[in-house]
Amino acid sequence: MIAKVTHYQSKLLTQHICTNISKKRDHELTWKILGSATSAAVQHGTPEVIDDSTSAFQLHKAFQATLIDKDEKENSLHKAAKLAPPYRISVMTGAALQMQRELQWYKEVENFMEPSYIKATNKNKKTPKMVFMEEHKDLLLEAQQWMKDVSSSSTVVAALIITMAFAGAFTLPGGNEDNGKPLFLDRAIFMLFIVSDAIALFSSTASVVMFLGILTARFAADDFLYALPKRMTIGLVFLFMSLAATMIAFSATLALVLKDKVTWIAAPLVVMSCVPVGLFGWLQFPLLIELVYSTYGPSIFSQKKN
């Protein structure tokens, strides 16, 4: 609560400073005060300061031309290309999402820049993109490994579900009559078994395809911005669907087989079959939600943090 109040008061103070400086109409004073603040905000990943400054003055072009570090000969995009502090990176789950957030921040600042500043070099003859790749080379390797590990583990689970669903389609509960007709064909719960088994087979196959697409990707830095998180999101969604459908098919099988024999044990077994789905949801759903929000949610400058 104290942190939220402090953040809100800091935001009000920033807006108040911007408003009062803009009234003085002194360009040198404006950029002497706000220039260093905005440059530091770009480097440390604080979109509120940049948003308030640019909204107050509407001087995006001056923002690009003025904010140049004379010692390092670096513009704002060079600053944004630097690796963010640990406390900023650690808010995201996994190295892949951390790499995605770094790319999103870099792209957001790049949108404010003129083309000449995007390719400008610093005193070491490095463009902002070169600085970004150098600063994030270790994080990129960690992101690649994290993505491969998650995809490999998920592929194994999806492959097991494919095996069970495929076998279940040809080993029907209750067996067949002499004419080959399924014994429980006329029961509604048998149709539930057939539909859920088919969904499990198709969704797990789609999940394997998506995770194999990740494992065979080139893993370039820009791929972590959208392509790889999108594949991971789709793969996890299909994996969850296949797991849930498999448990439904299993529950339907128990209900068919035990309904006329040991009725009292059918209900507890059905409830127990839901435990794996619940565990998977508890462990994986937060990651899935974070993937969706980070990939398809509002941009960094559009997120309201007050």
Keywords, separated by commas or semicolons:
306 residues, mainly alpha, 2 domains, 14 helices, 73% helix, 0% strand, transmembrane helix, PGG domain-containing protein
What would you say this structure looks like, in words?
The chain folds into two domains: about 130 residues, no CATH class; about 150 residues, no CATH class. The model has no long low-confidence stretch (mean pLDDT about 75). α2 runs antiparallel to α3 and α12 packs antiparallel against α13. It starts with a helix and ends in a 10-residue tail after the last helix. The protein is about 75% helix and about 0% strand. The chain contains 14 helices and no strands. About 30% of the residues are buried. It is elongated. It has about 300 residues and is an all-alpha fold.
Write the layout of secondary structure elements.
Elements: H1 2-24, H2 27-44, H3 47-57, H4 60-66, H5 76-80, H6 86-89, H7 94-110, H8 115-118, H9 128-135, H10 137-170, H11 188-215, H12 227-258, H13 263-273, H14 275-296
**Quaternary organisation:** single chain
Number of strands: 0
Low-confidence stretches: none
Q: What proportion of the residues form beta strands (DSSP E)? A: under 5%
Mean pLDDT, rounded to whole units? 77
Structural class designation: mainly alpha
Shape: elongated
| Radius of gyration, whole Å | 27 Å
Separation, N- and C-terminal Cα atoms? 12 Å
Pfam families: PGG
Keywords: Membrane, Transmembrane, Transmembrane helix
Organism: Deinandra increscens subsp. villosa
Protein name: PGG domain-containing protein
